[in-house]
Amino acid sequence: MTVPIGQPVRDAAPPRATLDPGFRRPAPGLNDRIYALWRADPGKVGIAVQRIDGEWAIAQRGPDLFPQQSVSKLWVAMTVLDAVDNGRMSLDQRVRIGPEDLVVFHQPLADRVRAEGSVTMSVRDLIETAITHSDNLANDSLLRTVGGPEAVRAFIRKKDLGSIRFGPGERLLQAGTAGLTWQQSYSIGRNFQAARAALPPATRRAAMDNYLANPVDGASPSAIASGLTRLARGALLSPESTDYLLGVMSRTKSGPKRLKAGLPAGWQFLHKTGTGQDLNGMTAGYNDIGIATAPDGTRYAIVVMMGSTTSPIPARMQLMQAVSGAVAEFHGR
Length: 333
Hints:
Blueprint: E1 2-4, H1 30-40, E2 44-51, E3 56-60, E4 66-67, H2 73-85, E5 94-97, H3 109-116, E6 119-122, H4 123-132, H5 136-146, H6 149-158, H7 170-178, H8 191-197, H9 201-213, E7 218-219, H10 221-232, H11 239-249, E8 268-275, E9 278-279, E10 282-283, E11 286-293, E12 299-308, H12 313-330
Antiparallel strand pairs: 1-3, 2-3, 2-12, 4-7, 5-6, 8-11, 9-10, 11-12
Helix pairs in contact: 1-12, 2-4, 2-5, 2-6, 4-5
């Protein structure tokens, strides 16, 4: 469906002397193409595309809540940068990270902590590590420093970002999704995976079903596309923080074969991925969200979220590439 931009985005697009045909409405055929791609996928998929320097958005399952997983690292970074903008934090502020702070799953920074006993990093370096490498430990260290989950929720409310939830932090989120109660020993080696595997199958299934039915970190594709649009327009952070965060997102290492791979040469893409836990071949959250810039400077927010999917990973990537490829194909028509 085509969604008027006036409702989800409260900031006017920059004035343009001469409007191109795609400023007020999507190119004919784009919405049908997105619908066809969405309908062909057997899982729960949400797609949103919004022209940042324009007046339209299209979406499939746009208002529904999908697990964000590491997509939510973007809101942590924004909350920190908002605190920097308001003089409550500094990018040069130092943060100590010790063994008691270790989390679970992807945390390359943990190797340094284990080897050195503790690590002290600047807020600037933690943002870079959390976004570009999707490091859970760097992200949760930022979260702790900025005031915890409630600080992020307060930022989301203050900026009126809409249907975007923020969970309890990586440790509690992943433990709850698996059916476990967090213990710090789970951060060591593969203790978390071993504890999860020891649970009765019914316990794991019930925990996963509860998470998917009402994701504590859920967000709607349309709200995320709107948030990306407002970020790119400079409506969420100061000009300095906006440029800084967009620059960090342009260096994202994860998901090179997701949305980014569907764009032709000459396009630029900055983004954040998110991937959840697997259970019996089903992944709870396989996402990519970002900002695509055409060679002529036109920008689009693109969001693809797979809330629960059993498709092989190559098929998931192909869907994402087809969505971003369609945006590029219909650009300028």
